[in-house]
Every structure is written in C-alpha cells, then in structure tokens.
Amino acid sequence: MSPFVPARGKPGGIGAGRASDRRTHAAEARYGAGQSSRRSPARSHARPHDRPHGRSPLAAARSDRASAVGQGGGGSGADILIGMYAPGTHRIVRTDGCLVENPQAQQVIRAVRSIMLRYGMLAYNEDSHQGFMRHVVVRVGHRSGEVLVTLVTNGDDFPASRSFCRELTRRCPFVTTVVQNVNERQTNVVLGSRERRLYGPGFILDELCGLSFRISSQSFYQVNATQTEVLYRRTIELAQLSGTQRVIDAYCGTGTIGLVAAANGAREVVGVDAVESAIGDARENARHNGIDNARFVAADATAFMRDMARAGERADVVIMDPPRAGATEECLAAIAELGADRVAYVSCNPHTHARDLRFLAQQGYRLETLQGVDMFPHTAHVESIALLTREKPVKSYAYVNISPSELGMGGEIKKPTYENIREYVKKTHGLTVSSLNIAQMKAECGLEKQADRSGDKKQPNCPPEKREAILDAFRHFGMIEDGSEED
C-alpha cells in the first residue's frame, strides 16, 4: 500500500473529496558545491483564525547549483523545489503528490512552479528578506468546485501579473479567481493586510449544511467539508436549540456555524470576530442565504461579551471555536459573566481544550459531553466538541418571625383601633366581638390596663372562640408574637 504522505514530509492538513485549502510556501535555500543546504529558521503556519493543520504547507524553494548561486530567473540548472516540511524543521522534502490532497490543488501548484520558472520569479528568502513569491494558497470549494488562488508576494509590484494569470488559467481552466496578497513584513505570519484582485471576483462560494458561503483569502474555512458538516450538526444538536435561545458565536469567522445555528433553532445569533474581512463575509453570507435572525460584529470576543454582561444583557448559549491556542481566561470569565446556560466549545487542540474546560469548571460549569470528530484522517489530529452546562445554585430558605419592636419599628407603627380589630375578626372568623372582649384580651396580654367601670357588677369572661379570634387579630396586626399569649 502506498504511503499517504511520501518520503518523510510533514503534512500540514488533510482534505476530503474536493475540500481543500493547500498552501505552498516559497522560500529560497542555496546550495554550494559539495555543501549541505543552509537551513532557514522554523516557521509557524498559524495565523489568526487559521490552524496549522488546516492547511498543507508545501514549500516552493529556490535551489541553485554552485555555478548559479545568487542568479535569478530560470537560468541553467535552476529549479523550484516543491515539497513538505520535515517534522519540526523547515527542511523541505520533495513531494510530487499526496494521496489525500485535492488533485486540482496539486495541479495549480505545479502550474505556479512552472510559470515562476518561465518568468524568472525568485522565491522569497526569509533570511535575507529578498525574493518575490512568498506563499501560494489554493482553496477548492467542496461542492461548488470553485477554486481561489492567493499569491502572497513580497511587494506590491507584480510584473506581468495579467500574463501570469492568463497562463495560469490556460493551464488550470477550473481556477475561478486569483488574488494577490502583499506581505512585506519579516514574519512567519502567512498573509498580509493588503490585497488586490487579479482575476475573477476575488472570492469563491461553497455549500455547507444546506447554506451557501462566501470564502475569501482571509476567511477561516474548514478544509474537510464532509466532516465539517458532521462537526457542525453535532454541535447544534448538543446546544439543544428550540427556537427561544439567544446564541453568541464567538470567534465566528465567516459565520459558518453561527448561520447554521440561526437556520436550525436559534431565536437570535450574534457572531463576533476580530477579523473585519471575515465579518464582512459573514454579513454577506447571512444576506444571500436570506437569514435575518443573525448579526455579526467586528470586535474582540472577550471585550464584546464582557460589555454585554455589564450592560445587563445575557445569552442562553455560547458556541465557540477559537484558534489552536485556545481561549484566554478573560474570555472564559466573560462567558461566565454573561450567564450562558450552555457552552458548546469546539477545539482542534486537546491540550488547550482541556485547560479551558478546567477553567470553565472553576466558573461554575459542568462538562456534560465530550465528542471527538475525525476531521483529519491518517493524522494524529482530532477535532473535539465539549458541551458544558451551568450549575445552578440550590436555594434554601429559613423562616423567622421578627416583631416590629425587634426591627426598631415599634414606635413607628400605627396601632390598630378597636374597630380595625372587630372588622378583622368578623371578616376572618365570622364572629362579632365587643369592645369589652377586646379590652379583656388586651389586659390579658399586657397590652393595656383595663379600666374598672363595672362597680360591683361582675363582668362576663370572653368566650373561648372569640378569645382565639381576637388573639389572631393581635398577631395579624403585630401586637403580639406567636405563643406570647401563653406566657
């Protein structure tokens, strides 16, 4: 059986079917006669809202023989090496193909290599900061088949860009659009902030979970669309949306999972992401899918949720899919402050996932479900979904009797009149009591001294049933406490 990754290369990511986003890194490495290659420093492939294993970092390196060291263009003996980085290094291992990579992406990379040789384009040297072509990113729509090619260059000036695109689309007629991204910084971050469209609309469309999504060069989009649908549907299932929930989609990117939630049971979705171009795509995705119960905000997720909480707003569910580095403690604390009952946390890094789940547990959340999804077959990588629910505190009550005098209110309370007491007894007990009955009970309870107006005439005692009714009235008006009449 043929190996899935030839030689000893390190795959950056695996696609399924036509779902692919292949990145080719162009870096210059010179060879002297009888000398080993000079290694470049290790480079990280991560960028905000991008994952190292979500791309294939095949490198295109300039390799000149001793007679052509320092010579540019497609001179005699010059070649451009296309391969994968050896594990943990920036050493390029020649790779002519990968059995789990999209064949159209491979065809584009080979065509770019050939055209670079034809036009004498130098690959970028990250040591000297010289050379033109830094990276090539190829994105292929899973269902649409549309292809976006992003050429990352070390400068704005792109000589013969029209001829380059014309030749590329002649060799690869399936290419839908070509974009130039300019990155002049000395950094291992792949994409720069400036772009211009060279050919086509500058974006592609693809379908996921029954919705159509606009994908640009800066947009995060899972490379394995078949398993992405499994991942998103399981996330929505765990969120238990019933049409009444307000959902926050943190780190929303182009709004993929948030729009799936909006179309499948959420009352309202608020997506937040720091990348403005991704938010622009998310808004456009909502518009052309006809979804009006989702809105997207370009902001820091932590600050946005904290401000919501402090403004008295809350969310029922938070769905989050942060970068590989995970979420910050400030972000997780903001989720707890927001009072979300359920948190569906999607992660591509088990280490940071476990760390963040531990912190959420300290904030009063309980892990209910942990589900793995094999997004990257034939690799050690796995995507995981955790469902957490907020533990509600158990309320207990202690019943106490407090007299008005104990509250310092004794002198402030207006004493009930004899008429008040008679009305209460009549309404509550259906008995008619006299002023004499009330006066006798007041004297018995020590509330007032009974004046002797009887002379030698003997006064009748208050009947037992009236006695109890009057005592109940005294308790009702706060004149005595329970049991005091028995002292």
Automatic annotation (TrEMBL):
Active site positions, chain numbering: 348 (nucleophile), 348
The protein's Enzyme Commission number: 2.1.1.190
Chain positions covered by the region annotation Disordered: 1-73, 447-466
Sequence ranges of Basic and acidic residues compositional bias: 19-28
Top-level taxon: Bacteria
GO biological process: rRNA base methylation
Keyword presence, Metal-binding: no
Pfam families: tRNA_U5-meth_tr
Binding-site positions, S-adenosyl-L-methionine: 222, 251, 273, 321
UniProt-recorded name of the protein: 23S rRNA (Uracil(1939)-C(5))-methyltransferase RlmD
